[in-house]
Amino acid sequence: MINFFEVYETKDMIESENLDVRTITMGINLMDCADEDVNAFNEKIYNKITTYAKDLVKVGESISKEYGVPIVNKRISVTPIALAASSCKTKDYVSIAKTLDRAAETVGVNFIGGFSALVSKGMTPSDEMLIRSIPEALASTKHVCSSVNVGSTRSGVNMDAVKLIGEIILETAEATKEADSIGCARFVVFTNAPDDNPFMAGAFHGVTEADVVINVGVSGPGVVLRAVEKCRGESLEVLSETIKKVAFKITRVGQMVAKEAARRLNVPFGIIDLSLAPTPAIGDSIADILCEMGLEYVGAPGTTAALAMLNDSVKKGGAMASSNVGGLSGAFIPVSEDQGMINAVKVGALSIEKLEAMTCVCSVGLDMIAIPGSTKATTIAGIIADEMAIGMINQKTTAVRIIPVIGKDVGDIVEFGGLLGYAPIMPVNNFDCSKFINRGGKIPAPIHSFKN
Amino acid sequence: MKKGIITVIGKDTVGIIANTCTYLADHNINILDISQTIVEDYFNMMMIVDLTSNLESIEAHVDNLAKLGESIGVIIKLQLEDIFNEMHRI
What is the pTM of this model? Predict the structure, then answer.
């Protein structure tokens, strides 16, 4: 039978170390809603989403209460709209984004992901229409998240799409400039995007998935931090073992919540995403873990090595705790959502270039980075291209969620609010890359894609 | 059997166990095990209870016990036992 010590260990994790289930995300297939008439399509997707997800929030809240573990977000991901809506005869997809927004309001979720396109090898007219709709779609909605997959290890990087995305990000920033360009915080560009990611802004319901599925993202940087604190002065092997053990415990909670949610909603369980996801709350920081491992600030030499070990240990511990692992599964290193990262930027310890190096060893990429609004579209495209190349060559998911804040410059602070946090504007290397970006075309598939 | 774990933490005072147990008896919730310590005036109790006949009203019991705790100056929390088993037992 469970003992006193174990009960209090779990209670401490939840009550003082911020252990929570970060999100229960219901993936919903919209392919069967296809229609030539965009209004009919909108009606079908609204009905399908609000029928399938009608109990999602209620079930999430019941589980949270009965087990005494916070479930922070209840969310929905849908089939990439560029696919589901490709037969619609319309001039843009903004009305579809508004429909998704309305459906999200109706069922009470805070984000709905899947205003997305998969263009790693080429763009269909529907893909291009979706991408060109992004600025207005994000400016006119509150809950819709958008993503575009522009590359993969199998097919290379679509540089035409990267160039276009650079422009689209600036347009989105301009369209939401009254709110510090926050529209860009709901848009992410990927290489090797997973089909079953429960985390926003990059969640969509992949075409290989079942009709409906429950994916769960766990969290718990605070729990890992406390465990690492207990190993001061110990060797890295001891540290790694300790992290594995707590990662196992954290993930077991996620697995239990996922199975229970799937059972109560009568929906198949998909995957657990083993990511350490920080929040702006004090003590809920990935950067603090890295500092506790022995760095003065994140960004100091040794940061990439420490992060690599942290990420790998979390995966090793978590893998055994869950029957199905998927999604992004790694440590997130968003800047604005992590107080330790913000501090490192403020003192000048952390640059975009160091963050880029860190993304080679963890999920997911350059995340929630605010840059000057005056940055050129080709420079943004260049930053994206670098990150996509890392993912393509290293057979991993990489992503960029970057926010050029219109009217602000290096030294200013931008406030996004809530889980999105706040961020100092980071300097960008402004040496020109426009001739490279303007070449267009694609980076061919790398040699190690030829595996057959 | 569906079991729940009740934890009670707070400054020691008269009637903590009596109040908690009365609530449980009133709602036909059987206590399977109690362990309790007092460290520097702080009262710490853990109960394992049988919720099998109360499965529909667990959420209400969570709220009611929390309110009861407030009224006597302690923190009372009811959680399903599964979360502890999942975390600590392979």
Answer: 0.93
CA distance A268 to A24: 13
Q: Which of A66, A248, A252 is the best substitution to test chain B (most B C-beta atoms within 10 A)?
A: A66
What pLDDT is stored for residue B50 in this prediction?
95
- For the stretch A333-363, pLDDT in tens is 899 999 999 999 999 999 999 999 999 998 7
Which CATH number does the domain housing residue B37 bear?
3.30.70.260
Fold adopted by A218-445: Anaerobic Ribonucleotide-triphosphate Reductase Large Chain (3.20.70)
User: What pLDDT digit, counting tens, does each position of A307-342 carry?
Assistant: 999 999 999 999 999 989 888 888 888 999 999 999
- pLDDT score, position A2: 83
Strand order in the sheet with B30-39: B30-39, B42-50, B3-11, B74-80
Tell me which of B7, B50, B86 to substitute to probe the interface with A (most A C-beta atoms closer than 10 Å): B86
- As given in the structure block, the two tokens for residue A121 are 């090898």
**Dist. CA A403–CA B59, nearest whole Å:** 42
Are the beta carbons of B83 and A68 separated by less than 8 Å?
A: yes
Hey, what CATH topology would domain A25-191 get?
A: Anaerobic Ribonucleotide-triphosphate Reductase Large Chain (3.20.70)
Q: What is the domain partition of chain A in residue ranges?
A: 25-191, 218-445
Q: Do A253 and B83 touch (CB under 8 A)?
A: yes
